[in-house]
Amino acid sequence: QAVRLDADRDRAVFRLPAEPVGEARLVPLDRARELVADVYDRVRKENAGMFARSDAWWTQFRLADPEHERHGGGPLFCAVIEVDGAPEGYALYRHDDSWEAGIPKSKLIIHEAIATSPAATRELWRFLFGVDLIERVVASNLPIDHPLQLMVADPRRLRLGLGDALWVRFIDLEAAFTARSYAAHGSLVLDVQDAFCGWTAGVWQLEVSSDGAQVTKTSREPDLRLDTADLASTYLGGFSFAQLERAGRLEVVRPGAVERADALFRTPRAPWCPEVF
Questions:
Q1: FRET label pair with 265: which of 24, 41, 72, 105, CA 20 to 30 Å apart?
Q2: Which pLDDT tens digit goes with each residue over 102-149?
Q3: CA 15, CA 67: separation in Å to the nearest integer?
Q4: Which residues partner with 82 through β-bridges?
């Protein structure tokens, strides 16, 4: 899941006053890759769902600015937030200029805004909300748990909307479950239904210890029974097993299994993918 933002720029006021930290500077797109890639990679390692990006991905896609991608807007800008001389955040954005009776009705369209810390996040959005001659600041894909919601004095003025933005499909269930980390040690037996990729269907036993995770087919009685699509929604931490239970999307075979499953799969942040694919 992700959120859309359509904020009134002049009403975007932070809840608590704070002195500016570091500085913001505009960087030409052909010189931005090294700075923004460093920030992105540091954030990516702490957020499930974010892809590693190649140099080609940066130069030919994310930092590219072909005319047909502007859709009537202005050129793409890159702002970098530096704290103690090091990049700690960046934003890629463009203006969509519009005027009415001499009053600016322009939009600031944010393509990507990422920062490494709460302070850097605040400074990044302080910069974006401070761009002059802008009526609205819009973004189409922000993390559902973005801290901006708690940073501003009036979150309603952000006009946040909920949408889907990240999908998971198991092709190799054993590889997927041994690749991820877990919040606790324990055991869980899942009866997975899969009408399309039949080789992932069956009863699987997950064992998590200090040595990592092991996943094997088993003849044991399952703790939970659910479809692969529902299991996939929990894989990165987007939904909990308790939420699936409340929605009637899993069957509890052994009491207490939902709580054990959530203890294993819990993640500190909601998953997020900045790519549209």
A1: 41
A2: 999 999 999 999 999 999 999 999 999 999 999 999 999 999 999 999
A3: 38
A4: 23, 87
CATH of domain 173-265: 3.30.1050.10
Nearest to 254 by CA among 176, 187, 202, 162: 187
Which of the four CATH numbers 3.40.630.30, 3.30.70.1150, 1.10.760.10, 3.40.30.10 does domain 2-163 have? Answer: 3.40.630.30
pTM to 2 decimals? Answer: 0.92
By residue count, the chain amounts to: 277
DSSP β-ladder status, 212-217 and 202-209: antiparallel
**74-95 pLDDT, tens per residue?**
999 999 999 999 999 999 999 9
Cα separation, 177 vs 214, whole angstroms: 8
